[in-house]
């Protein structure tokens, strides 16, 4: 066999023509510079200068905007003490950008260069190729620039995509072992969570690199006559008669196609492992590989992998054959050289259809469907075990023998007296309106409390008291009646002021409590004053510069002798009716230079930042002020709980943020939604954000979590140990709601631990819809929210602050289960989930049934005046399950915030609706419940029936007058101190004015014409 190196056309380019292989003077070549000028003309010099100027300006503006974004981000991270996080992330993104960008540019650029390098001489070309001469001539002077430009373009695109995968890379680079193996491949779970996503990223990059190279090479070969849509009439160098491609082009394309098929083989290899984390198919409520996947799809992937490798070898062999034996006649005839690779591709496509599609379908229909429960049982069990582990449900305590009582008797609640005393009747959502009306002093139009309020625990009268707590924030400028100017929005109204607490239940100390957690007029029983000095909350810095519902940015600070410009709080004794302040903390970013002002003027699209006299060398700009957002920025690897809550601790207001480590790659586990699709979750971090200076602190709450360990390796020093949490802060931490909701949703199915029962699906539970949110349009579709309450579950030693909720069964009347989790972080059982599973023949009604009963029995009282139904609570007391629902009515037409009207209770088939919880319970349990709610009794001789509208108004008017008198007494006391307490005096005067205005509104409402 003769051996001859093929002639790709490069050797003959100088014969009879220019260096590009075109005959001298031929229009098919790139031609001389004068010829090109003649053909295309020369643009005027002014046009060139203008074009260059525009390009330079565009580049400079783009560079400045990039610098603005990068540098202001650096300043922000530096201001919160998280510069190391920014550096680690930035360095990782830059390295990934450079590495993957350079690889993509090199691969694509090399293939373009090869396609151009082995272009044939343009002799005997077809009319099609002659028509391309115009483009070749135009591109000739810019060939090097075009090569660099195309390579750079694809490199930048690939680098940008790779830099976005910095989390995936860091998880792989700093991965740790889970210590648990999957049941199919016996690999550590860490392989699926940390390694497999990175291998998938590599596969995606390889596919893009090879595919782009193939397309770029084909285009280049076509442009320079290496490939033709119509074969030329005569043979040119490197091309046989009738062939559409030169041998060089065929070798090049064959190699690239072989690489593409080889990457597909790599994808088949990864597909085998991805079966364990494939969530695209959900069968009977469970996910993970089925019998069909393990016994048909998995072998099919292996077979397809082998076929793909063989097909790739055929392409490589074809390239070698063309390269070494191209002069042989049997190879040189048109497309005969591609027969074997084409056959390989056809075989791979046929195999993917038959082996990858038809065979698994046949296995499913012929083997699985006739005996599904038996065939799928081992794989369902894998799913059950993995899901319970991934969601932390292995230690759930389920009491299946709980047979609830439904009959009532005297003294039935005596054993549960401690729980009954803490039953809340102030709904955190409803009470928010009361807080806004009664606890936003003076210029209340600018203040507002969150909805819902926070449920927490504080020491009141020497006892731990469940409380409602809210931070007095600023209303968004868009909600104000009169629009503000830029100075008001960003320089004057810069912060909220203070916390307010009220009793949530019936154990409030002090005050004329005549209903659980409510004053005599039905408003919340407030435990602290507006002042930051309170026996309940302690002394703390009341100014809130970081929190929800604050302006997108504020600029604070002033020179030492400058007059304060920030509104602090209203003060009736001041000539300006307010007190002002100047921020003295270290929060925010200093804007002490013209450059910094310019950068932030561009960032916020506001030139006043650069031009305003109110922005000076001592100013600081505060932005990204929401606590959850700040934690997400400082710990971008965390999923943040949707609820943040305030705590008064060690002289400061701290926002507590629960952070989760999550993944959707835990093998065999079922997915749920938690700010995205996840199938593994741990409350790994408790974070705090200082409301005054914005400091973010992360504490490792679950230091056994492998994902947290990985991120602590990637960002060393950013997470403090759990032992660093102060004792005061620890008392206020709680079990997060989003985690409870995810676990409750999973336990609706995965309380079933046996595959046979799970497969039947008859024992599943659902989270009930909230019946209090029903509307005229139809029943509520909103799931009933869990609620924080102090309770004692059966077989639990003592009442514990808990997070609780209910579950119902589809197609079954009554309640199916009650679920509670210990939410006291000082308890050794914190996080312990307890479930009371009720028998299928239970007579305990569901929340929907109870709500319908209430609305039917008390229809008149719930509609006149228009009542507001509070949250419907379910509590395990009296040997059964007690339902409690407070009812509120608007105070007046002019002041429509709600006040407590009464409490509805139900136990079994019995129910009651009375003005107070104590009266309702006593009436429900045969005249004497046996437990004391802690509320003060009604005055002697007072009516125990629900008040009508007139009686309620009289009580409200009396309460308003009494509140005004009490506020005046506090004002006199503040002035009598040495020196006078002007802050307390101003607050008391404001409260007195509010109370008098409330009384006036009530009086006006009664005398107004009907």
How would you describe this protein?
The protein is an alpha+beta fold and about 1000 residues long. Strand 12 (about 565-570) and strand 13 form a beta hairpin. It is flat, with a radius of gyration of 37 Å. Strands 1-26-25-24-23 form a five-stranded mixed β-sheet. Strands 16, 17, 18, 21 and 22 form a five-stranded antiparallel β-sheet that branches. Strands 27, 28, 29, 30 and 31 form a five-stranded antiparallel β-sheet that branches. It is about 40% helix and about 15% strand.
Short description:
By secondary structure, the chain is of the alpha+beta class. The chain is built from 27 helices and 31 strands.
Alpha-carbon Rg, integer: 37 Å
Binned, the helix content reads: 40-55%
How many distinct beta strands?
31
Structural class: alpha+beta
Low-confidence stretches: 1-40, 328-334, 506-516, 529-533
Number of helices: 27
Query: Could you give a short account of the major beta sheet?
Result: 5 strands, mixed
Distance between the termini: 114 Å
Provide the residue-averaged pLDDT. 84
Portion in strands: 5-15%
| Lateral arrangement of strands in the main beta sheet | 1-26-25-24-23
Shape by Cα distribution: flat
